[in-house]
Amino acid sequence: MTDRAQIYLATPPDPEGAGFSDTLARVMDAAPVAALRLDFATRDEGRLIHLIDAAREVAHARDVPAILADHLGLVTRLGLDGVHLSDGSRGVRKAREALGKDAVVGAFCGASRHDGMTAGEIGADYVAFGPAGETTLGSGERAGPDLFAWWSEMIELPVVAEGALTPETVRALAPAADFFAFGPEIWDTDDPAGALRALANAI
């Protein structure tokens, strides 16, 4: 892992209006961002492509790779740098074959050490575990500190911590995580840039 964990920023799922690019730019300038995950909720292809284009331009203007969540077929077409698969290891092999060796392929594996190891073995560039913080959403199963500590000690593949992150959780996981993926933690606040700075300061 790196000496200091880096920020893997996720876009808001449903950004509003023409000000999205400016807002995203302000947030990305608030703290060093290593990668941007384009994770939009819309299933309207035209709107999705519009949002992807806007986010990609902001990211690439800062030499930050833009990684699209799940829509594998749009990655090459829209000039993106890779794909983030939210269904664990199942799509990793297909994504690697489709995108080639130079693209980024990442997999979210919940709290499953086994699925994370499988994803790495078949071609993932990173594995994400979460939720890393306490939450009552979803199944309630947490990717706890022991998982990240074990992974950082035993596995060379970079590991991302995400989900329900607080400054306290970030400080606790910082020695073991390579990246922190921040999304709702900042976009659900009145000051996303300030929220990102606060979380970055906890790393």
UniProtKB/TrEMBL annotation:
InterPro entries: Aldolase_TIM, ThiamineP_synth_sf, ThiamineP_synth_TenI. Pathway: Cofactor biosynthesis; thiamine diphosphate biosynthesis. The keyword Metal-binding does not apply. The keyword rRNA processing does not apply. Residues 8-174 form the Thiamine phosphate synthase/TenI domain. One of its GO terms (cellular component) is cytoplasm. It comes from the Bacteria. Keywords: Thiamine biosynthesis. One of its GO terms (molecular function) is thiamine-phosphate diphosphorylase activity. One of its GO terms (biological process) is thiamine biosynthetic process. This is Thiamine-phosphate pyrophosphorylase. It comes from Hasllibacter halocynthiae.
